[in-house]
Amino acid sequence: MYINIVVVDDDPEFRRIATMLLTARGLRVVAESGDGAECLAAVRAHRPHGLLLDLHLPDLDGLSVARQVAEEDDPPRIVLTSTDESFWSQKELEYAGIERFVAKDKLFDADLRALFAATRP
Questions:
Q1: In this protein, which residues make up the domain named Response regulatory (predicted)?
Q2: What residue ranges do the domains of the chain occupy?
Q3: What is the pLDDT of residues 82-108, one digit of tens each?
Q4: Beta carbons of 104 and 82 less than 8 angstroms apart
Q5: Region 44-68: what's the mean pLDDT?
Q6: 0.85 exceeded by the pTM?
Q7: Which residues contact 58 (CB under 8 A, 6 or more apart)?
Q8: What is the CATH number of domain 4-112?
């Protein structure tokens, strides 16, 4: 069974790299989004198991997007990414429905499959 992921980042080059990394680890990227509104539409359309979500988006910040996604029926696992990891607490992430944070420069070394493995059937 595939684990379906939506990649959300306003940088198309980062989306391309993240998609390559996820695919190389046996995950399937079903959609890419460049902003929060596109992300919400993609989550509703594709019902992914996981969401790789950038903190800084042009319309909404990643925490706001995560809170809205967490309100969906059977929400996906959310992994937040950013180059800035210093201004929020673990409690703030959990409140937003974010399970994990991975700095963008650590994404290559992260066990991406394990981050999204505990998914709905």
A1: 4-119
A2: 4-112
A3: 887 665 667 777 777 787 888 899 999
A4: yes
A5: 94
A6: yes
A7: 10, 34, 35
A8: 3.40.50.2300
